[in-house]
Design goal:
The protein is mainly beta. Helix content is 10%, strand content 44%.
Length: 252
């Protein structure tokens, strides 16, 4: 092989190497994959089934009752997070989410046929409540034995921490139906200098407008627990075997 032929072959090899490198750059390279985490906890609601989570149709795992569960899912694009009844395979709720690469989103899952609730609630829903206020939805679980009407109205009073006067609140619930949740009610519970408001509620007969007395002749019941400022709750209002009203709270 003469010197000219050797140089020609060397140049051709170099040309082919460059051509292949350019072709690789211009071709379809594998897409980079990014992942993030989604954390889902279960709200403590009655009759919630075992919940199986899916992301874009692919099964993840069931939600742990205590502590919730964390799942690794594709990130950087929208995907459907879905909750199914693990036993019946029934779709309970779904939502579109988008997690940034290496990011994390947190949700609470609420499902209760009794409360008429189903769906995902962004973690920290109480963050939307002002620090001096309190959000509550009241669930009517009063018995027909002592409270026979299917619907009652609710009025509210509070003790003004500044004047010491008992004041009627402008918040009113109309047609509060048995086994139903009220809409979200917001009450101011702390003054600017940190003094607490104290609230109580009254059942009102929607037909006569008269206050409904409990069997012990008390016309008021307390529907707020302690340290509720900045929080959001579902509060069940029920009565015991003597017809005396009591409450049970669930944090949102």
């Amino acid at each position: 092989m003469n010197k000219m032929s050797f140089l020609a072959i060397k140049r051709l090899s170099l040309f082919l190497f460059v051509l292949m490198a350019v072709s690789c750059r211009k071709g379809d390279l594998p897409e980079e994959s990014y992942f993030g985490k989604v954390y889902v906890s279960l709200m403590n609601l009655p009759n919630t089934p075992t919940v199986m989570m899916y992301f874009d149709g692919k099964p993840l795992d069931t939600i742990k009752v205590i502590g919730g569960s964390s799942y690794i899912v594709p990130a950087g694009k929208k995907g459907k997070l879905a909750a199914f009844d693990a036993a019946s395979k029934e779709l309970l709720a779904d939502t579109l989410i988008s997690i940034p690469p290496n990011g994390k989103q947190q949700f609470k899952f609420a499902y209760s046929p009794e409360f008429g609730l189903k769906g995902f609630i962004a973690e920290g829903s109480s963050a939307n409540v002002p620090a001096d206020s309190f959000d509550v939805r009241l669930f009517n679980n009063l018995s027909a034995t002592f409270y026979p009407k299917e619907k009652y109205d609710l009025s509210f009073i509070f003790l003004d921490p500044v004047s010491g006067e008992v004041v009627t609140s402008n918040v009113v619930v109309k047609g509060w139906e048995r086994k139903k949740l009220s809409s979200t009610l917001r009450f101011r519970v702390v003054t600017d200098d940190g003094k607490p408001y104290f609230y109580a509620a009254q059942l009102i007969d929607p037909e006569t407008g008269a206050v409904v007395l409990q069997p012990n002749q008390n016309d008021l019941f307390v529907f707020l627990g302690d340290n509720v400022a900045g929080k959001s709750k579902i509060t069940t209002v029920a009565d015991d075997n003597n017809g005396v009203i009591y409450i049970n709270e669930i944090d949102l």
